[in-house]
Amino acid sequence: MNFIDDPQKSKKMSIWLIRIVVICLVIYLALRYLNMVGTAVSFLANLLEPLIIGCILALVLNVPMRPIEKKLFPDTYRPGLQRLRRPLAILISILAVTGLFIFVVCLIVPELIRSLYVIGEGLVQLANGLAEWGDETALSDTMLGSILETLGLDFSSLQHKVAELVTTSGPELMTSLADMISNIGSAIFNFVVGLVFSIYILYSKEHLKKQAKRLIHAWIPSRAADVTIHVADVASSTFRSFVAGQTIEALILGTMCMVGMMILRIPYASMIGALVGVTALIPIFGALIGALIGAVMILSVDPFKAM
Predict the structure, then answer these.
(1) How far apart are CA 46 and CA 52, in angstroms?
(2) Packing angle of the helix pair 205-219, 222-263 (nearest 10 deg)
(3) What is the pLDDT of residues 24-43, one digit of tens each?
(4) Helix, strand, coil percent values for the chain (each to nearest 5)
């Protein structure tokens, strides 16, 4: 029996061929108009940025919210308290995460700014000392002067160029500062809108989950839909376990770092321990960030121990 004699097989084959043709056409158009596709994707990403931020915040806040919600009024049968359980869990989760962030910022940032200020003062004093040394000593008679002459560099013209660059870069610096303030304002707005989205997602997560499953089953074949839902469930549970494990690891690393620095009498032990604990939540680069900021803070007090 061939496909022409079997209408069911002929229909399936026609649908399969149409799908193949459409997919090939879409791939060809995407490659043919790659710049336009990139512009459209960038515009869509900027448009959906608050929603993406909201989904990420919902994933993060859902980790502490689940155990908090289970602990709130576990044995009550009052409808009012049952309705109040989830809003309270969301509020406590947001306050806990925000409080931890503010605590670390208030603990680290002022001391980091002071350390950078001390390092800046040291660099200014070093530059002034070099300038005085240059006025008192003929540069051409020194080893540095001979090296510069060998390389074909003129120290005095280099000084004038640096001063001219500092003088002429003022308007550009103001423009860059205005752009930075605008970007910060846009980021704050997107974060606030994303926080609102995350609260809605957390409050109605069961309802949204059912709607997502219906949408997947409506647009994707049954077997592929079941696989997609299973992968999403496994990814969600794995993410929760990862965050919980990463939090425990961060507490252990922060405590060990603080105790070790106290034993070695390295300054800012508690601050850097808290910083290492928080940055350890960032995968891959967290430890490097904590180490660099801690080294800058120690450098202002004892450069040898910063090494």
Answers:
(1) 10
(2) 140
(3) 888 888 788 888 877 888 88
(4) 85, 0, 15
